[in-house]
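The freezer alarm interrupted the setup, so I double-checked each line after restarting. Inputs confirmed:
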Amino acid sequence: MNIVIAGGTGFVGQHVSQLLLREGHSVIVLSRNAKRGTPTDASQAQHIQWDGCTQGPWTQVCEGADVVINLSGASIADQRWTPSRKRELIDSRVISTRTLGQAIAGWKTKPHTFLSASGVGYYGDQRSKIVDETSPRGDGFLADLCLEWENAAQHIEASGIRVLEVRFGMVLGLDGGALPKMMFPFQWFLGGPVLPGTQYVSWIHQLDLARLILFLITHPSIRGPVNAVAPDAVTMKDFCRALGKAMKRPSWFPVPEFVLKIALGELSTMLTTGQRAQPQKALSAGFSFTYSTIQEALNAISQPSA
Ligand SMILES: NC(=O)c1ccc[n+]([C@@H]2O[C@H](COP(=O)([O-])OP(=O)(O)OC[C@H]3O[C@@H](n4cnc5c(N)ncnc54)[C@H](OP(=O)(O)O)[C@@H]3O)[C@@H](O)[C@H]2O)c1
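Predicted 3D structure, all chains:
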């Protein structure tokens, strides 16, 4: 298949591209800085320039793709959520989705599938309540952001193509996402859970996320929202205990909520609240996770050669 990945230069996008290329697909990455990734041979993705908000020569290059994936978005956890940062977080996702939708609407040959990233933040703070794809949206900034993002993706169905909104949990890997930041204090024997510790962490190993995305684009009966999380959501306390065990470090030093609130403002809610999400649709469709428990996933990441 010919697959376009907007935002494919990021943490998730690189893993997805590598898997798709290994499986014999061809990949075009849309990037705001395409020069960074000029391919040297056909086993690499072709990088094409776009700005994420306007049509341009990229639309002709991408016409004829079988699948379009959007992973674009300014980083959620890099900066405090000031009003202007919140606008940027929303616009970089919603406008890039709409821009891809407008391009697709104008193509004579349309892709069969559009896949958009979203997040389990859609469900808001659910404490220990189990949520699946049928659960309603929750409250808070991330829930509102996910709703706007998913609505923009849903509009693309009007072009007569299948749309998937894939709600990622915390994606675990060494080369991006939250895990390397969480591992840092553990390396110095200063690791511990963010309190209250009872909040749930829904997570997925980066390899399983890439495999799930391939599974979804090759299973045409699945559509709409899909939780991209392992079946083993755990409390923050258990997550940090497993991380300490994997790194052979103690998990002794809890981080009080008020300290995070002072340091990060509203962004701290990403760590002090959580979701206990289940991958109901993926499991029902027969997807099997390589890493289905948190200890297996963190051991594999922390001790890759073990
Ligand atoms: N990683 C996680 O744990 C996680 C969890 C839930 C949801 N997600 C979502 O999944 C998607 C991919 O995650 P990721 O971890 O791969 O993110 P990432 O590493 O930050 O990559 C996102 C890509 O988006 C593009 N981008 C950045 N700022 C942008 C802006 N202002 N406008 C348009 N494009 C912009 C960048 O590509 P160029 O610079 O090449 O244009 C970047 O490589 C994101 O939307 C993220 O919110 C991730």
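Quick read of the result. The chain has a mean pLDDT of 95.
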